[in-house]
Amino acid sequence: MTPVAMALSVEVPSQYGDVRECIQAAQRNLEQVKQLVARPSVEAGEAAAAILREVEVQLGCIAAIWKSQGVNADPELRSALEGIQREVGLLAELFAQTDRLLQSWIGAIQSKRAGYNGRGQTAPLVLVNRVSLEG
Predict the structure, then answer these.
(1) Residue 122, helix vs strand vs coil
(2) Residue 8, C-beta contacts closer than 8 angstroms, at least 6 positions apart
(3) Structural domain contains residue 89
(4) What is the spatial distance between Cα 39 and Cα 119, in angstroms, rounded to a whole number?
(5) Between the CA of residue 7 and those of 51, 112, 119, what are the distances in Å?
(6) How far apart are CA 87 and CA 84, in angstroms?
(7) DSSP string covering 60-100, please?
(8) Has residue 50 been placed in a domain?
(9) Tally of domains in the chain
(10) pTM score > 0.90 for this model?
(11) With contact defined as beta carbons under 8 Å apart, do 41 and 74 qualify?
(12) Which contacts qualify for 62-67: CB closer than 8 Å, 24 or more apart?
């Protein structure tokens, strides 16, 4: 088992009906994701994805609770929830931009290896002035 898999502990509230507890668990989970992103690896990426799925569940529960209660949320809790939503949005943008960067990088490497330039055109020939057949 990898160190990331052993260290993975997703925060789950003891009661999904408690908004404050769901928010606190989501905040702790986001802190774990930030730590995983700081040490990029395949295992860390998979662990971060699993934790973010739990955060999604927690945010969905908060929304459902507030909708069912039909009351205005505590301003402090609403502010905390908005902060979590911003962080999740930033992480989503980070992952999307990283994916685009890696895809472009891989494409550039493959093109160069195949003898093409960055625009997909054949690379110009390089003429050699002298050729020596002596070994």
Answers:
(1) strand
(2) 32, 47, 50, 51
(3) yes
(4) 33
(5) 12, 40, 44
(6) 5
(7) HHHHHHHHHHTSPPPHHHHHHHHHHHHHHHHHHHHHHHHHH
(8) yes
(9) 1
(10) no
(11) no
(12) 62/19, 62/22, 62/23, 62/26, 65/17, 65/19, 65/22, 66/19
Judged on CB neighbours under 10 Å (0-12, 13-18, 19+), 37 is: middle
Residue 102, domain extent:
3-113
Longest Cα separation, the chain: 89
Kindly state whether residue 127 falls inside one of the protein's structural domains: no
Q: How many percent of the chain have pLDDT more than 70?
A: 80
Q: Residue 98, Cβ neighbours under 10 Å: how many?
A: 13
- pLDDT on residue 8: 64
As a whole-number percent, the residues of the chain with pLDDT over 90 amount to: 18
